[in-house]
Amino acid sequence: MDKVVLDATTRDILGRKTNKGRREGLIPAVVYGKGVASKNVWVKLLDFKRLIKKSGESTVIDLKIDAKDDRNVLIYETQKDPVRDNYVHIDFFQVRMDEEIETEVELEFIGEAPAVKELGGVLVKNIDAIEVKCLPADLPSSITVDISSLKTFDDRITLGDLAISKKIELSIDLETVVALVAPPRSEDEMSELETKVEADVTKVEGVVKETASVEGEDKKEEKKDK
What we know:
By secondary structure, the protein is an alpha+beta fold. It has helices spanning about 20-25, 45-55, 115, 185-225; strands at about 5-10, 25-35, 35-45, 60-65, 70-80, 85-95, 100-110, 120-125, 130-135, 145, 155-160, 170, 175-180.
């Protein structure tokens, strides 16, 4: 697989002082790995977002620090601002290209399931990512799942149906179901759901009445005290 390139610069600023860099469109990051001294760097927010959009998070990155220090890294962890939804910190894990790594790869669902479009079913995705073990050069950015083969409610897509390189070792059984289409609920099932909801509401009302009863007992006790 082709590596993607991301430029970075050495970062000497730590703690809350990094907020100034964030306001200038930079993300504070740290690079570390097995037998590797950690190094603090800056990466541009716009460059990182473009990389994620194009290649995803499961890909080997050629991180160029100060345009001279090249390192092969994986995105180990990211942190986001919950309000602005922008990246505020990144952990890069440096890897050796001759040593196997264990990481998670996302499943990319493509196509359209006839059982959904024509039969009104509901697509069920049992898993959206899988753990893999391989050399960094063999790591895919994602694994494609074409759901157009789901023509009936009996059809299933298993892990063994996916086009996965033999160089990649999987942590789960090939018979694991990845996706299927469930039939739409019948009128009887919908009616049963409505009945369950009404029953739940009744239970809530019962709790309220019980509370009112306790309050009444409190008032009786107050009268006795008087």
